[in-house]
## 1
Amino acid sequence: MSEHLSPRVNSARLPNFVGKTVRLPCKVISFNGPSAKVQASDGGEVTVVLGAGMDIQDTFVEIVGTVTDPTTIKTMACINMGDKLDLKLTNDTIEMMYDPRFTKIFF
Amino acid sequence: MSQYDSYYGSGGGGGGGGGFLQGGSPFSQTGSPGGTQRSEASMSMRPITTNQFQKTEQPHGDAPWSLEGIEIGHVTVVGQVISMQQHTTNHIYNIEDGFGRVEARHWVGTTGNTEAEIEKWSGIEEGIYVRVSGFLKSFGNKKYINASYMRPVTDFNEVDFHFLECATVTMMLERGTPHSARAGGQKTVGAGSSAYQVNNAMDTQDEYSSLAPLQQQIIRFLVSQDNKDGVHVGVIARALGKADLDAEKLSSALDALLDSGHLFNTIDENHFALSR
């Protein structure tokens, strides 16, 4: 199933997905012109390049975009996820998805 | 709790390779039209990922759907609405959860109260996360979820919850419930109320076995009481009747059981009943 694939990732997984589409649940740290610095669920910092009409409002967002290099994502869409998200839970869930015992459920 | 019971129940049938005869059923049309083949699974709701949705199969038009050999009834999916098309008779939603895509169709006007229905579905927009439930259908070669329910996700921990629940349920169907003596073994709960006397409670292996001892004792006492109207906290305290049982411990155990959803309050906050 490569079609419509945009797996959830943390910053540690990004090197495996260069050129691919991913979903990065994260906490917004700062804005810097057309890009923003975010903290991924595993604590790593990632730069997200924003496009027109991207509306980051909440503390927590999910960035859907293409990985251009292991610390940068070019955003295609942004989903606001409110100000209450357990990033540790998110990270544990992400790690479970890539655990060989569970991969067949997700990939 | 009833939905979990369904999971456990279907775990018994599917995991043990019992009731559902995938190979045989297409040829038994003359004998039993439908009826007997329909198991508990067809009435239960299973959380799945879109990837699992892609793997569901239906051997022929009237057969039950199955996922990796386990019968599947209703399903629930959490994902992002990528696109929606609203036609007069039906709405089509394309939903992605990162692992694939599903199409959910909602047939408008099936409930008889169209206005309430439109109201209920009006919160769905492109781009948002939703939880959708329904049963599987196919049209031509295309599978879709015939959606009976859809709502926006507002607490986004639900997304993680859903993925974890998918994994939990899949594991449980494959291997049986945690602590069950036989993989996919029978449901031991309710096998006879005498088994739940407080004294031998700890020997029982079932879905409650992972709870703290005091919580288990409370549960097993309530199982033995089988009282839907709730049991007063005083009665529980007397039944457990231990010298070292102080009110604080009991109430924190009850609170923990309430929080985890095993119990609920009935007529007032001093009465407790089992959620099952």
## 2
Amino acid sequence: MGPKADAIVLFTMTDPAKGNKGITAFLVPTSTPGFNRQPPDKKMGINAAWSCTMYFEDMKVPAKNLLGKEGEGFKVAMSTLDGGRIGIAAQAIGIARAAFEEALAYSGERKTFGKPIRDHQAIQFMLADMATEIDAARLLTLRAALMKDKGQRHSPESAMAKLYASEMAGRVTNKALQIHGGMGYSKEMDVERHVRDARITEIYEGTSEIQRIVISASLLKE
Amino acid sequence: MDFTLTETQTLIRDTARKVAREVVAPQARAVDREERFPKEVYTQLGELGLLGVNVPEAYGGAEAGVVSYALAMMEISAACASTSVGMAVTNMAAELICTYGTEEQKKKHVTALVSGRAVAGAFALSEPHAGSDAGALRTSATRKGDRWVLNGAKQWITSGAYAGVMVVWARTSSEGNKGLSCFIVEGGTPGLIVGRAEDKMGLRGSNTVPLTFESCEVPLENLLGREGDGFKLAMVALDGGRIGISAQACGVARAALEASVRYAKERKAFGQPIAEFQGLRWMMADMQTRLSAAELLCLRAAQLKEAKRPFSREASMAKLFCSETSNWVCDRAVQIHGGYGYIDEFPVERYLRDARVQTIYEGTSEIQRLVIAREIFKAVGA
């Protein structure tokens, strides 16, 4: 929401020598002199969610706008991201479910070789795999959410939910498009939008690669 | 087995590579963004012989064979898939008329297609209710005196609004596959109505339209092949078409891999270029390996066709593997680019959207698997 936001949480490096411990968060109104932003990015999907690049030139922020303590920015970011990953996992599941339901309905309408395509075994197998993967992702996500609810540490569980749910959404929406055939490539149906929207879930809130780093690090620590 | 290219093949590939880099690539982003049909590019491709790579010189073609055609398709596709799909269909239409047409049909229509005078060719087979299932087509052609009268609806016709020469399938009798015939219809013929262009996920510069035939009359001499030959012609053309789409898939995937390698060397994370991380190096090694396998499957099918040997199974395997590989490679390319892969400042999101249709058109992956399985069982006599 960068292009529209009135205030942002800004992460800065206050002491580069300290690495992660040199990161500090600030609350910044976008009316602050020295704050600049570029026009919204043109993206593949989630087109109603605006994003942009921001620039800061000698931007002065009052000391009271410090969020948390100096040098605690990394902790602030990580705690938000763990929770954020559960949100994106849930988003991925919602998108996948919509695509699945549309594919299921379409497979009953569309006929080839004299029968609805859902009577062909290959389509039935695709639908079975899609349903199984959606449920697996849903359970991983609910487990992470439950742990967060209970105040337990949930970094690897959230990472697993985010990793699996986002990659699942990529596979399921693509299969749903495939079941729709040519119609699936047209903007008349919703399914191509689901594919485009799902694609970002493997990137934002930590890419799949970052989730794998989090998961393997927690395994190796034990 | 010889994997080296002949002099002619090298010449065609280099010619295509040059025009792809100098003319096609610089406008690819605008072609996509503005949904601009690259009309003027086809004139240039025509001048270079790229609209009739496997068409005899006597009719204006390059007469360079099927492998050359596949190589040319790879090059143009690496620059712009919207442009290359129109190029593929034009080559297909020209080749089909060359194979089954009368001398008059070749002189008139093939030369128009290959030179770029007809702008592009079109291939009107799919209908709203029947794509992969050609035997279920309903568009009809009835003989009335010295004319054929066409009635019906077609869908997903590439270059349909611009094509000067179209090959149209219509039913001349009700007997399933044997009741299909093939006709040449010129753009602008009265009774040929072009519908609203589809708004697509990708290939946004290519023109995809529904066509309606309302008592559309064509002269008797526009029947292509014999009455009832339509299904055979469709199968022959589709087998060849699959080589074209396989090559397109390889070209787009190669562009995505090249973009990824460039980006991985520049982008830094945790203090080093991301190209130094094993996870990404392995990803790119897999991308290159699968891409090379795809290119070889495509060129093998092309070589078999060129040698006039059976190639249905090989063309289907190439189409299945190349299109699925291209989607996987383009998807990995987006992933390597991270957030930059999702915005249109970098070309990889376009590559991914363009690649997506490759597992659908010219026979879906599911149809390719049916063909491959059928050929396997035929070979063992089951």
